[in-house]
Amino acid sequence: PLVFQLGAGGVAGFVVGYALKKLAKIVAFIAGLFFIILLYLGYTGIINVNYDKFIAAIEGLMHSVGGASSWITAVIAALPFAATFAVGFAVGLKKG
């Protein structure tokens, strides 16, 4: 069972890391394109952007993402799987 946990953790970590890096690139491109279009439309006067509320909305989103610490204790409980998952995740991020 330990060998299976180590192998499965490494493979799963690699797949998740690789996919996450690819997904992050796509999300960053779309977000950048959105902000460029938003700035252009604001500059030309087509729309009026309330930047204070826009920044507050982004801060609220970041705050909700930061509350993901509850799953960390479950990862620590499965340390052999988590350790190989972390190594595979790092390799997947590097290769992605």
Describe the structure.
With 96 residues, the chain is an all-alpha fold. The chain has 4 helices and no strands. Helix 1 (2-44) crosses helix 4 (79-95). The protein is elongated.
Cα-atom radius of gyration: 19 Å
Instruction: Count all strands and give the number.
Output: 0
Cα(first) to Cα(last) distance is 29 Å
Question: What string, H for helix and E for strand, traces the elements in order?
Answer: HHHH
Name the shape in a single word. elongated
| Low-pLDDT segments | none
Mean pLDDT reading: 78
Measured as a percent range, the helix fraction is over 70%
Provide the β-strand percentage band: under 5%
Count of DSSP H/I helices: 4
Classification by helices and strands = mainly alpha
Largest sheet: none
Itemize the secondary structure elements and their pairings.
Layout: H1 2-44, H2 51-65, H3 70-77, H4 79-95
Helix pairs in contact: 1-4
Structural descriptors:
96 residues, mainly alpha, 0% strand, elongated
Summarize the structure.
With 96 residues, the chain is an all-alpha fold.
